[in-house]
Structures are given as structure tokens and as C-alpha cells.
Amino acid sequence: MLFVWIALWTVALILWVADPRSPVNRSLGAVAICGGAGALAATLADVFIPYLHSYHPQQRFEDALYTVQAGSSLVSYYGLPYFYLIFGMAYFPLNMSRSKLWAVYIALLIPIALSVIFTPPYNEKYPVTHSVIVWWAVPYILLGTVFVLSKRSRHFSISHSHWMICLAVLPPVLFAMLMSYVLPSFGMLRMWKYNTWFVVIGVAVFLIGLFTYGFLGLRVLIDRRKRDSTLRVVTSGTAILHHAIKNDAGKMRLFTDKMKAYAESTNQQDLLEDILVVQKASHHIQEMISRVHRRTEDLEIRPREVSMDALIRETLKQHEPLLRKIKLHVSIAEGWQCTLDPAQVAEALNNLISNAIDAMNGEGHLFITLRAGKRELTLEVRDTGPGMDKSASAKALEPFFTTKGGQEANFGLGLPYAYHVMRKHGGSLAIRSRKGVGTRVYLIFSKRRVLAVKRPTSSDLPATFQPL
């Protein structure tokens, strides 16, 4: 039980540190704390208190540990079903106002309060009255499980995480329901000791999920911080390089202009041609580093209310002459007005469409889709090009990484720039690609962050009839 206590409280710490503002992380962390409290109570009862009683008898210290044991046991029995149900409600989530949600949370405490008041107090053999609390604890856990399993998302980026959550959380909690509530209500006590194996499996799944697919956004958070740090380093480096090259290029222009004037005045045609080559090369170098700097510098967002469908269609018009044999498929949820920087978002979308067209080499299918979810607007750009393997997909957002080897003026900054734009808008960018199938890139806007509002469209308005 010592391992279970440490493991569960470590999981809770990871969840809370990763995203303390997330109600899902907070409530699931509380579930882990309650589970760990039960393991702490068992560790104190079976290890620490007997050891002190045998080798270092101090009644006052033993009484203090006994109080901690009793408190931990009660937190585990009463807290686990309660916080698990809250986790399920947050994970689903319920479409309720904050005030109504808090009213539900308080109402769910009533059975716990009645159990504490009207059942016998804690003792080592019967820490709680199992035959009473089973009537509310089991429904809480089953209802929380229904909420978790009812979670549905059409977006791939959280589908793996959802099933990792189901595998890591549901089996240990449901097994604990059986061993800690149902069987003890029939007189089969101390069955909780068998919970250890399911907790170990759950923690193992949590760690595997954390470092592979991500768990409740934890890997996404780690990758995001890594990319943000990389972009800051690249921004600083290109700013310094741009400044240095700009100064040196200015000196080159000054002196080559003087040399050019001298060559013209002395009618030295060969020298004049050489000077022009040097001037052209210096101008090209400055232009190249300026382009890199513009893509990596910190973006200044100038938001205003725009129509998403109009923004997408205007961006698509620029690429129509380049489509050739590429068939375009457009599906846009119309009527959405968002407050964002249209120039930056359009440029980000422009990069994604250009990448898709280049990947298909003049033939294939290009899909542009805008979908509206409960909390997000998802803009998808999908192509039927050669796609990327997992290694290339993992590096796609790294600055200067590119699969377009040898193409002139291709710096591998299109996707990092688009990622940067989405981060500035409080959204995210996700990539899904399979070798030989194609690539999908998602621009995911939080409705709350971009103040998304659905305006009525012609298809939403009722038909009007004119009298004959």
C-alpha cells in the first residue's frame, strides 16, 4: 500500500501542476488524492503504528497517527465517489452555468453529510457503515462512469487520450467500488487490499499514455512548451542575425555604389558587371534573412470581427490558378463571426493550402472544412498527397524542418508560423498524417477566446410567403 499511496499522490501532483485551471485535472487529481488517502490509512495501520508500538512506544504520537489514519480512511471512503462523479461531470461536460453547477456540487454533499452525522463513528474494524454508504457511493461511481463513457469527439487529437483515460481510470475505480463498497456491505471486510493490482495497472497506463499519446493534454502541454521555447530561441537568433546582416549589407551597398560610380566614370565595363553581381548577391542575402525574420518574429495580433467563411473563401481564391488537376472540396459551417487577426490567420491558412498543393504535385483532392463543436471551431485542411511517417509528423512543427528538399526559398517555417498564429489566438494546431494516404492539419479555435458568434444565414431563416 505504500507504493499505491506514493503513486496516486504523484499522479495527482502531475495533474495539478500540468493544468491547475482545468476542472477535469483538478477533479481527477482529487480522485487520486482520495485513493491515495485510503492507501495511507492502510500503511499507517499495518506498518507505521505497529512499528512504533513495538519499538518506540509513545502514546501521544500513536494517538496522532491514529487520528491521521482515521481521517485518511474517511476521506477515501467518502471522497472517492464524490470527486469521481464531479470528474465525470467535468469531463463530459454538462452544459450548465457556474452557479447551477456549484448548486449540484453542494447537493451531492448531502448524502455524505447525512452518513457522517447518522452512522457510528470511525473504528478500525468498521471505518464506515458500508451497508448505508453503498446506496449513494455506488450510484455516484456508476453515474460518473456513464459520463466518462458518453464523451464523444470527432477530433482525432483527443480520441487517443480519451481511451487512455478510460483504461487508466475506469478499471481501478470500478474495482474499488466492488471491493471497498459492494462486498463489504455483505460483510466481506478488508477486500480493499486487492485494489493494489488495479491501481498499479492504472498508474502504468497513465505513464504510458503520458509519454505516447498524451493524457488529459499533458503531453500536448509538454510539446507546446518545448515548441514555444524553440520559437523564442529562433526569434532571438534571427533578430540578431538580421540586424548584423542588415548593417553589413548596408556597408556593402555604400562601398559598391562608390565602386560602381568609379567604374562608370572610367568606362570599365567588366568591373561594373562584377560590382552588379556583388550588389545583387548582397541584396539577395538581406532579402532571405528578412523573410526568415518576418516568419519568426513575435507576432502583433490586431483582432477585429470577421466572417470565417468569407475569410476562408477569399484565401482559397488566391490558389485557384494553382490547382490544375487538383479537385477542391469545400464544406464550411456558415454564419460564424470571430474576433481575430484576419491577416495573420489568412496567412497561416495560406501556408497550409500551399503545402497541400505542393504535396500533391498537381493532382489529387484538397478538402477544406470548417466544423463547429460545442467549444471549438475546427478548420481542417486535408490533402491526398504522399503523407508523412510518424517521425516526420513529430518534427513538422519544428522551425526549419521541411520535407521539400532542395526547393528554393523554402525555410520550413510555414507550419511553425501557423502554430505561432494559433497560439497567439488562444487556439492550437494539430497534424495527422499517414504515409501513402495524405495529411490533415487542424486549426482549432476556442470559441470563447475568439468570441465566436453564430449569425443567422439564409438557410437558418424561415421561408416567407407572399400572398397570391
From TrEMBL:
One of its GO terms (biological process) is phosphorelay signal transduction system. InterPro entries: HATPase_C_sf (IPR036890), HATPase_dom (IPR003594), His_kinase_dom (IPR005467), Sig_transdc_His_kin-like_C (IPR004358). Its EC number is 2.7.13.3. It comes from the Bacteria. It holds the Pfam family HATPase_c. It catalyses: ATP + protein L-histidine = ADP + protein N-phospho-L-histidine. This is histidine kinase. It comes from Cohnella herbarum.
